[in-house]
Amino acid sequence: MLSYTEENYLKALLQLTLEEGREEAGTNELAAYLGVKPATATAMLKKLREKELIEYERYGKITLRPAGRKSALEVLRKHRLWETFLYEKMEFTWDEVHEVAEQLEHIQSSKLVNKLDKFLGYPKFDPHGDPIPTAEGELKAIPRKTLSQIEVGESCVMVAVRDNSAPFLQYVVQLGLGINNKIKVLARQPYDAQLEIEVNGQKSTVSQKFAENIFVV
Predict the structure, then answer these.
(1) Fewest CB atoms within 10 A around its CB: which of 34, 103, 177, 213?
(2) Fold for domain 145-216?
(3) Is this model's pTM higher than 0.85 or not?
(4) What's the burial of 90, exposed, middle or buried (CB within 10 Å: 0-12/13-18/19+)?
(5) What are the DSSP E strand ranges found in 46-191?
(6) How far, CA to CA in Å, does 131 sit from each of 43, 123, 125, 144, 161?
(7) pLDDT in tens, 113-130
């Protein structure tokens, strides 16, 4: 059985590669994603390599092996199902569910998770717009862009967020944004790439960093 920390590392590796549409991740990149020091990440990566869950060479790229990917998908599935349960059935707000799901995702009972999936009606997406892996380990790839990639004058629809932190999600709500909202890009500042956007008739200015954390189609 894997430790909670090992599961967290595998899940983070999977999410990093999924978000960027690639197979590999770097040590420093993973450490920053998890909020740990590179030396701490290196020590854990060595353990995961010993368990044959990842391919890893010091200062090189990290790749999930089949067993590691399977474990990562299982944890990710539990996390997103629990987020959906908390949001839809327990009336948590979308900025509250991530932290609680971080605790619940380590429950080992596959029977409970499968019953939870059935109870929720086999949802395809979590409250943040991310696809939920199936019991068979299938994860639907969703072609999408970030808001920062949308040209001035174009419209798009918000489908997910990259940043699940409470402060970011609360800011999204303050701007009147949510999943399936239509966004029109009105202007882009040449100096710092700030965007002027319009949502439901309301105009706002957002930073490039914010725009990079909003997924759209």
Answers:
(1) 103
(2) SH3 type barrels. (2.30.30)
(3) yes
(4) exposed
(5) 54-56, 61-64, 145-146, 155-161, 182-188
(6) 31, 9, 4, 12, 12
(7) 999 999 999 999 999 999
